[in-house]
Every structure is written in C-alpha cells, then in structure tokens.
C-alpha cells in the first residue's frame, strides 16, 4: 500500500468534492458490495418468513387480480393456452422491482444521513445499492415463474427467457436514474416521501402490468410508452411466452428516450447537489 | 524524527467556509409555534427573511508534515469541527484548496454505520469498508480487532444486544486497525470506561509514533501536550497561532483565562428560559470564607464559598441542584450537589427562590484557572442544566503555592495535589 501512497492524491476545493463516476465506482467497488450486502441482510432480519416475502408480495397481488378483478373485466392476453396469471405475474415481477427499487433508492440518502455526515464515500453508492439489492429480490421471485409455468403447463421459450438480462438491465437504469433524482430531492424536501407512493399507485394503473397494452385504445398507447417499464414488460411477455409484442417500434424508441432523459436529469441534479448533502442534512 | 524532512503531506491553503443563516424574530420551539409561524410566513407579503453570512472559517492555511501529529485546538465554535469535515471531504469549502498526498481515513465518530440488527462480525466488515479498509485488510486484521475489543464470543451476536461499553470497544477496535497515510481524529473518539480510554489514547500515541501523519482535534490540553508535535490554535474561524505544542497551548490558555468572571447574574441577554425547565437560575457567585467577594483570583488559604440562587417551579425528591468544577484543561474534577448525602440529611428545596451555598476546600487543587458551572438534573431522567452547555458559569484563578514540594523545583504531576498522611507500619 505504501509504495503507491504518493500516486494517490486528493484535492479538495469548491465545486470538486467528488471524483468521476466510473473512477470512483471502481475505487469503491467493495463498498458498493458491502452497502448492497448490508441492505439485503438488514431487510429480512427479524422477519418470520424472511426472503419468502419477495415471492409473496407479487404472488398474492397476482392472485387477487386474476381471481377477483378478472371475474368482472375481460382481459385478453391474446393466447388461450396461456392463463392470464402468468403474464400478470410477469408484470408484477417487473413492477415490484420498479416500485420498491425507486422507493428504497429515494429514501437511501436520508436513511444513511448519519454516515454521510461523518465520512466521505461517493454519495451515489447508497442509491446504487438500493437498485442492486432489488435485483436480488427480482431474481428470487423470478424462480417462482418457472414453478407457475410448470403447474399451468405453459412452456417458456428458453432463448426468449434470456431477454430478461437486457430488460432487467434497462429496468435497473430507470430505477437508478429515478432513484437518484428522488433521493436528491428527498434530502431537501421530505415531501417526496408522501408524493412518491401516491404517484406510484397511479402509475401502476397506467402501465400494462395486469393487462396487455392492446387492452387500451390505440391513441393512448404512446402515453404509456413514456414509462420505459411498458416496453420492458411487453417485450418479456413477447419473448418468453410468445404473446403479442409492441406493435410500434417507434414507441419503444420513445421509451428509450424517456429512460435516457430520466438518467441524465437525475445524474445532473444529483451532481449539482451532492456537495451540499452534509451541509443541509 | 521524520518531521525533520519537512515533507508536506497535507496542505491547507486559504480555506474559508461560509454558512448563510436566516434570522427570524422569534424562534419557534413548539409544534404549535412552527405551524403558526409557517402559516404566517406563507401569507406574509415580503418573503425575504433577513439573511446573514457566517464565516465558520476564514482564510485558514497550514501545512502538515509527513509523520507528525498535529493538534487542532480552540474553544467551541472556533471552527475545529468545520476544518475536520473539510479535510475529510464531508463538506466543501467555500474558497481555498486542500491537497492531501496519500490515503486518508477520518474518524469523526466511532461506529459510523453500525447497524443494531447486524452482528458484531457483520458490522466490522461494513464499518471497516466505510472507513476505507480493503476487504483483504479487514480479513487480515479481523482476529486482532476482536482481541482488541475484548468482545470474544459475542462477535456473532447482533450489536443491539451489546452494552454501550462493548459497542464502543468494538467500534474503536476497527478504527484502531486502520492503516492510512493520514489519519484525521476527533476527540470524541476516546470513549468508554477509563481503562479503555487509556487503551485508546495509547493506540493513538502508537500511531503517532509509528510515523503516521495524524490530525487531532481535542478539548483536552493534556492529550494535546502528550501526543502532538505541533498545534494549531483556531479562534473565531481564523488561525491565531501555529507552532510548537507547548507554546500554542499556553497562548490558548492565556487567551481563555482573560475572561475570568467570578459572578453570574441572570439577565435577559445571558439567559433564555426554556419553557418547561423546572429550575430557573438567578445567580451564581463566589466569595471567600470571610464573606469577601472574589475578584478574579483567590488564594487557597482564603477558602471558597459558592453561592447559588435558583427558582424552582415544583420541588421533587429526584431533583438535584449542584455544580461541576472543571480545570483549565476542561477536565471535570468533580460534581457536587445537595443530593450527594442521604435523603434524610438533605436540604429541603422549596417552591420559589432557594439560596444555597457550598464550601469547596482549595488546598488540594493545583494553581490555575478553574470553571464552576451549574449542574442540575432529575435523577436518571434528564438534564435540567447540563454543565457542559449552560451559560451559568464562573471562572476564577486559584493561587496555590502552599504544597509545593520543598526539594523539588517542579510541581507534582496529577489533576490535584493532595497531601495525605504517610505512616511507617514496619
């Protein structure tokens, strides 16, 4: 360690508290791991069924939707061989990651205030850890999908299943981008804590989670595609189950644009405010 | 010593830190006040609150040389914590630049990021990582950390079940095994019981002697003189003096002993009564045994009487009224209150004004400046007047040459210098 001591130089001056994102990400990679690890450990301590909560939440919601709501509303996913519980569960899987990821990420800076005011580390790490730990939950709950498909005799496309990797990667970018935006806002304005769950509840109905996008009239589709989760869910149902995919790829482009915008706005706003966290917290 | 090489490892250049503080005519203390105040502010036409710049630090510059231990001293509000936070990259300076060569670890508190639900072992890994240790280093030092902390088999127990002593010992043990090039330490670090405090100080001294560069902030002049090579004296956000520890310490003490005041009387300016506080101080003053008032200095043979007047809303058995005595190094020598004796021998406090007096023997106290502060609490419940924070305080200078040993030209060491009878028993 000592031989490279002199190559390591810290300069502290106005407007330059943090280093470059990728440089610090590499330098603090172990801390990213430990934050994620702590987040995961702490979450299910003192719970009776522990990690099973990860499966229960989307499963119960899926059952409620398919058994109760769908008795009155006819939702057609376009393939009579696939019972609607499967695509609804897929929708819930991605939605849960999205909602809980953003919720946890937006509280991550406030929750770690005690550490932020006492020691330096890149401030994006708690947000990143919240987005990462959600992925662990996602993949645990993902395993239940295989059991459901086996039980209902639905075959999954093995190659199509692999699309989960780029799709969940895209979901991760939204969670991180929106998370870091709300987390930064939350440091100054605790209104975020009240506004966010409300916003999420509305967004849940405006995203094809428990219905396919074809359920809604064509003219409003583009609105739903403003949320990048829309094509993520639609595409996975298409590749894994062979259901109808996005009819208009231009809309998918719109989603991509929306994702990039969230990421840029979040990162820029965070970069501008992170230096003041310890002052105003 | 390596300091002879004079290689600059930390360079602080013209650092300033500004805070903008908004003034309000009356501060809101209760929820009701906050709500009413908030509503008023919304409807007020001129949204401008009077704002004022406050410079916590102003053009502070100093260098730290490789291998030295530099102490940062100054009274409360002098900017010590602010400079530490800037050096630790927690807050950013308004102006100026700091450059540091090498790896920095800062310890502004122990147990940063400890989670009560996690076990000791898990917290060692997380806390070590937050403080900048590599995973390999934590693994390498893990057994030493557990040994040093004296936690033993409880290492796999969640820390919420630890006693506060165990918690602090584990936290310090991690900190003690950091191996950065520059270590930044706040005084709050030396905590726990007396034995463990000594262990902490020893460990810090070892770090200092092993050629590590250490920056150290403290109130305790004893520790500064013991472990620091040089010291920086901050006053109102500016560097008042830098240099050899003993010279800086004596300058600091000289500056603080200028404000000796041997009596305190409540006025609107110096005391704000907090609603709900059951004891309102009226006056605190010093006089000699012969009822002569004391003017700044007192000779030990004159004897000291401390007169204390307070007004009590509702007296109760668990309420204690007393004082704390501190020396010029901020060591508390003792607390004394009317509840120190058995219940039946105690003075009975009454509703309304109470005038109390206590005699303090001065023979055993060393020559120097002392501070007496009001110290009231409700037993095991709450501070009523915390001696560390109360404005109700007096300072005096004690002349005591009476017990200087005859054949020695220096004073005996120790916080006090009692003369106890020695007997031969052989």
Helix and strand run of chain A = EHHHHHHHHHHHHH
Low-confidence regions of chain A: 1-6
State the name of the first-level CATH class of the largest domain in chain B: Alpha Beta
The two chains with the largest interface, and their residue counts, are: A-B, 37 and 40 residues
Rounded average pLDDT of chain B: 82
Distinct helical segment count of chain B: 8
Please state the overall shape of chain A, judged from the principal axes of the Cα atoms. Answer: globular
Radius of gyration of chain B: 25 Å
| Extended strand count of chain A | 1
Number of helices of chain A: 13
Task: Tell me the overall shape of chain B.
Answer: globular
Question: How would you describe what is shown here?
Answer:
The complex is a heterodimer of chains A (281) and B (426). Chain A has 281 residues and is mainly α. Chain A has one domain (21-280). Chain A has helices spanning 21-27, 29-44, 53-72, 85-111, 113-116, 125-151, 158-161, 164-188, 191-205, 221-225, 229-241, 249-273, 277-280; one strand spanning 9-12. Chain B folds into two domains: 2-24 and 50-256, P-loop containing nucleotide triphosphate hydrolases (Rossmann fold, 3-Layer(aba) Sandwich), CATH 3.40.50; 263-399, Distorted Sandwich (Coagulation Factor XIII, Chain A, domain 1), CATH 2.70.50.60. Helices cover 22% and strands 33% of the residues of chain B. Chain B contains eight helices and 19 strands. Chain B has helices spanning 31-43, 80-87, 120-130, 135-149, 164-176, 194-209, 221-227, 245-256; strands spanning 8-23, 50-65, 69-73, 95-101, 104-107, 182-186, 213-217, 230-235, 238-244, 263-265, 279-288, 297-299, 304-312, 319-327, 332-337, 352-360, 368-378, 382-385, 393-399. The radius of gyration of chain B is 25 Å and the shape is globular. Residues 24-29 of chain B have low confidence and may be disordered. Chains A and B meet through strand 1, helix 2 and helix 5 of A and helix 2, strand 4 and helix 3 of B.
